[in-house]
Write a structure and sequence with these properties.
The chain has 91 residues and is mostly helical. It has a domain at 31-90. 45% of the residues lie in helices and 7% in strands. It is built from 3 helices and 2 strands, in the order ββααα. It has helices at residues 42-50, 54-70, 76-90, and strands at 31-33, 37-39. It has a two-stranded antiparallel sheet. Strand 1 and strand 2 form a beta hairpin. The radius of gyration is 28 Å and the shape is elongated.
């Protein structure tokens, strides 16, 4: 008796390779303030400070407090007061 079954071989799928696209690398930042505000040129930083809005000023103060807390700058009482103050301003 002859075996009429065909052997099924799994097809090898080609890996979907995305076309290589040349990407421009972003320049290295010149500096970072409070571990969260990055600038690439000192003129950008100057412009930011000269045109600071109320919302940006509040953001900077909150980031400064959080950055200082990470660096263990405050006592436990100061940390508690800052934490409550931040929650009051952001809620």
């Amino acid at each position: 008796m002859r075996n009429n079954k065909k052997e099924i071989k799994p097809e090898v799928e080609e890996q979907n390779k995305e076309p290589e696209v040349e990407t421009k690398q972003q320049p290295e930042p010149e500096g970072t303030i409070f571990d969260s505000i990055t600038y690439y040129k000192s003129s950008d930083l100057d412009n930011f400070m000269l045109n600071l809005t109320s919302e940006q000023a509040l953001y900077c103060l909150l980031q400064a407090c959080q950055s200082a807390y990470k660096r263990n700058v405050f006592t436990i009482v100061e940390s508690e007061l800052l934490s409550k103050s931040i929650r009051k301003l952001t809620s």
